[in-house]
Amino acid sequence: MERFRLASGLEVCLLANRQAPIVTTVLLYRVGGRDEAPGRSGSAHFLEHMMFKGSARYGPGEIDRRTQGLGGNNNAFTSHDLTAYYFSFSADRWHEALAIERDRMTALTLDPTEVASERQVILEELAMYRDEPWDALELEVQAELFRGHPYGTPVLGTARDLESIDRESLAEFQGRYYRTANALLVVAGDLGAETAERVEAEFGDLSSATIERPPVAAAPVPDGARRLERRHGEVGRLLRALPAPAPEHPDHAGLRLLATLLGGGRTSRLYRTFVDVGQLCLAASCALAEAEVASHLACSFEMLPDGDPSDVERRLADELASLRELPIGDEELERGKQILLADWVFQLERIHQQAITAALAIAQGDLEQPEKLVRRALECDTAELTRLAQRYLDPRAGSVFGLSLPETG
Amino acid sequence: MRAPEDRATSGRRAAGFRPRLRRTEGAPVVAVRLLLAGGARCESIPGQALLTGRLLAEGTRRRSWQRIAADAEGRGMILSSFSGYETHGLAIDALAEDWQLALEWTAELLFESVFPADRLQWLARQAAAELEAQADQADLLTARAFGEQLYAPHPRGRPLQGDATSLASLNPDHCREFHAAALGWGAFLSVAGEIDESKVDARIRELFGGLFADGAGDGDSTRADRPRPEPAPPATAPARRQEIVTRAQDQAHLFLGSRTLPRAHPDYPALEVAGVLLGTGSGLTGRIPQRIREREGLAYTATADTVSGAGLDEGRLVCYVGTAPETLDQAEASVRDELERFLVEPIAEADLERARSYLLGREPFRRETARQWADLMAVSALLDLPLDDPDWYAGQIARLTAGDVEAAARRWIKIERLLVTRGLPVSRECVRPT
Asked: How much is the ipTM here?
C-alpha cells in the first residue's frame, strides 16, 4: 500500500493486490446532497449523471463505449456526503480510466440539450423509487428521522427542485467542488510499478485551489417515538429507525455487533422471533446505515398477508427491551462475533469492494477504520452491549416507526 | 494448481459424478456448491422443487433446523438451500479452515434430510406470502405475466413458488420423493477456495462415494444415471399482447421479446454478442438504452438481453423499459424500431469488436472469488459445457464474424413473433389479452 498527495492536492492511495488480473479505480469527491443550496436538491446526483454525458475528449456516451471497448465496467454513486466514480478493467488496460476522470473533471460539456434529457431520466428514477414499496418507505422514514437536517432531503432531490437545476447551476456546482484538492483517488488491484507515475502525470499539474466545505451540523435526535403511515399494495412493510452515532464514535463498533445479534442471519433474534419461529413475517432484518455525521439502526419487517402490525410493533419493543435488560448469552455473543468476522472476510474478496471500502474509509478520515471497527466489535463483552442497548435501543427516547400498510383493509 | 481443461470434462450422466475443485488465491475462504438436476422443470406439482430445495436445511436425521443454523452461523458460515427452474441444491460459504465441516454438512443435508411436516407447512405459507409481496412490485408483477406469456404451460411460465393452491397440496412425501429422484437425475459438486485439492478430493470420495459412477465410497445406491422427466413445451400460439394493472402509482412497465435458445445451442455465442449490441453491455452502450434513455430521455431503466435465463431450456429475448404511462407507446415504438434496424443493417466492425472486447474483458471479473468459481464450475457440470475454461469461451467469441452475429439475430429474433406485456399503474385503462 502506498499513499501520497500530489502537488495539485489530490490524495492518492494505491493498493496492490495480485489475487486477480484486475484494477479498479475510484475517484471520490467530497461533495454530496448535504452541500446543495436550498431549492436545488438533487444537484450532486444530477451532476453525477451529467459526468457521463460529454466532456472535451469524450462526447456523450463515449465513456461507456470506451469502457466497453476495453472490456471493463464503470458506474458512480452519490450520497449525502460524497460522490464517487469507479472503473474496473483488466490489469493491462486500466490507464484510460485516469484520462477519462481528468477530462470530465476539467472539461465537462454540460450541453443544455443533454441536461434537459437527463432531467427526464432522473424524474423517471424518482418515479421508480416512489413505486418500489421499500424504497418509498425508507425515503419517508429517513426524511422524518433527519427532519430539518440535510440528511432528511432525498439525494435524488425533489421533482420541483430538479426543474430549477440548469446548465449554469450545474457548472457552478461542479466548478466549486470538483477539484483535485477536494478529491481522493484509490487505485487497487494488480498494479504495475509505474502506477504512481501515471497518476502524477494525469493529475499532478492541475490547480491546487482548495475549497472551504461548510461542516454539516450534528443530526438531530427525534423527540420521542414518531410514526408515519402510508398505503401501498397488499403487503405490510414496517421500518423502525433508531438514531445511532457516526462510525468514528467509540460506541459505533458495538452497535454493529448489536445489529448482527438482532438481524444477522437465521439465528438472529429478529429472524427467529418474527420469521422462523414466530411466523409473523416473511422477512425481518436489522442493519446499521452509516453516514459521515450520523448513523441509524434500521429494523425492517415484511409481513405475512394476515399479520397484525401492532403485534410486530409490540414484539419488537419486547426484543429491544430484552437487549436492554437481560445479559446476552455467551454462545449468542460468540456466534454474532463469528458472523461479523466472516462478513468482513467475504466483503473483501473482490478488488472492486476493497477499492470502494478504502475510498469511503479515507473520506471518513481513516483508511484503517473498517478493520478497527471489526476489531473493536470483537472485543465487546456482554456488559458493554447492554450499556449500548440501554443508550441506543429505546424507541421511546427517539425513533421513527414507518408503516407501509395494504391499501385494502 | 491444475489447468482448467483438466477439470472441464465432467459429463452430465454418462460420466457420472465428477466433482470439480479449484484452489483460488486471495481471501481465506472456501465455497461448496451441490446442484441436483431437478428444479421446477422436473416437478409434478408447482412449488414442489422450491419447497424440496428449501427443506434441505430444515432438519436431518442428526440435527434440527435450529441446530443446523446455529452450528453454521457459529462458524461464520453462510449455509443455504435453494431451488431454481433447473436445479435444487446447497451452497456453503465458509472460512477456509472449515472446509471439512462444509463438506460434511453438505453430505449430511444431501443424504439425511428428513423434510419435517411442520417446516413444510411454514415454508409453504412463506412461499405463498412471497407471491403476494412480489405482486406489490410492479416490475416483478409485469415480468411474471410476461414469463407466463412466453413459456406457459412450461414451468418457466409460472413462479417457482407455484400458487397458493399447489403449495397447500404438497406434503413431505412429495418433497422426499422429488429429492430422491433428483439424486438419480444428476448431482454436481464443486469446491473452490484456499484448499488442498487432493485432501478435498479424498474427503469427497468418503462422503459422497455412492454418487460416483464407479461406486467408490460407502455404497450408497444414488447414481446420476436416470433420465429426467421433460417438462411440457411452451404454447405454440400465445397471446401477442397483454396489459395488466399493477399496484404502482407512477410508472408503466414494458416487456417485449420472445423465446430464443438454450445455453448449449451453437448459436449461443453469436446471439450473446447480439445481446451486447442491443443492451447487455457495459453502461448504456446498447442500442436500446442508447435510444430510450440517452437520446429520448424516456426512462431510467432500459435494457435488452437476447439470451436471458438460457440454460438447459430456452432463454429469451427481453427488452424492458420502465417509463411514464404517457410515454409508454413511444417507448414501445422505439424499441421495435431499434430491433427492426438491428435486423436489417449490417453490424459495423468497430461495434462487433467492442462487444467482443466487453465479453472477453469481463471474464476475469466472473472468476475473481471462490464463490464465483464454485458457481461457475457447478453450472458448467450441469450444462456439460466447459464454461469454467476461459480459453474455451474466448475461442468461441473470438472466431465470430459480423455475418455470424447478423445471421443468428435474424434466426432468433422475428419482429412478427414478438410478444408484449405492459404493466400499467392503477387507474389506467387496461385491455384484455388478445
From this structure: 0.93
At the fourth CATH level, which superfamily is domain A2-203? Metalloenzyme, LuxS/M16 peptidase-like (3.30.830.10)
Instruction: Tell me which residues of chain B, numbers 83 to 122, contact chain A at a CB-CB cutoff of 8 Å.
Output: 93-95, 122
CB contact under 8 A, A117 and B126: no
A266: nearest CA partner in chain B: B69
* pLDDT exceeds cutoff 50 at B12: no
Q: What pLDDT shows up at residue B427?
A: 67
Residue B254 near chain A (CB below 8 Å): no
Tell me, what's the pLDDT at B434?
40
Nearest to A246 by CA among A256, A231, A257: A256
Residue A409: per-residue pLDDT: 62
Cβ pair A388, A251 in contact under 8 A: yes
pLDDT, tens digit, 9 for 90 and up, residues B332-372: 999 999 999 999 999 999 999 999 999 999 888 999 999 99
Contact yes or no for B370/B29 (Cβ under 8 A): yes
pLDDT at B433: 42
What residue of A is the nearest CA neighbor of B298?
A121
CATH 3.30.830.10 location in chain A: 2-203, 225-405
In this structure, what DSSP letter does residue B230 have? P
Contact A131 B250 (CB under 8 A): yes
Chain B residues closer than 8 Å to A69 by CB: 353-354, 357-358
Contact B26 A349 (CB under 8 A): yes
**Domains along chain B with CATH numbers:** 4-211 (3.30.830.10), 241-424 (3.30.830.10)
Chain A with chain B: Cβ pairs closer than 8 A: 188
Shortest CB distance from A65 goes to which of B26, B285, B369? B285
| Residue B428: predicted pLDDT | 54
CB of B425 within 8 Å of a chain A CB? The answer is yes
Q: Are strands B78-83 and B88-95 parallel, antiparallel or unpaired?
A: antiparallel
The whole-angstrom separation of Cα A23 and Cα A291 is 27
The answer to whether B67 faces chain A, any CB pair under 8 Å, is no
Using DSSP, state whether B184 is helix, strand or coil.
helix
Positions of chain A with pLDDT lower than 70, given as ranges: 409
Instruction: For domain A225-405, give its CATH number from 3.40.50.620, 3.30.830.10, 3.40.50.300, 3.30.9.10.
Output: 3.30.830.10
* pLDDT the model gives residue B17: 86
**B122 to chain A, minimum CA–CA distance in Å?**
8
Phi, psi angle pair for A36, to nearest 5°: -80, 145
Residue with cell 493498493: A15
Cell numbers given for B5: 481443461
Residue B327 bridge partners (DSSP): none
Q: B235 to chain A, minimum CA–CA distance in Å?
A: 31
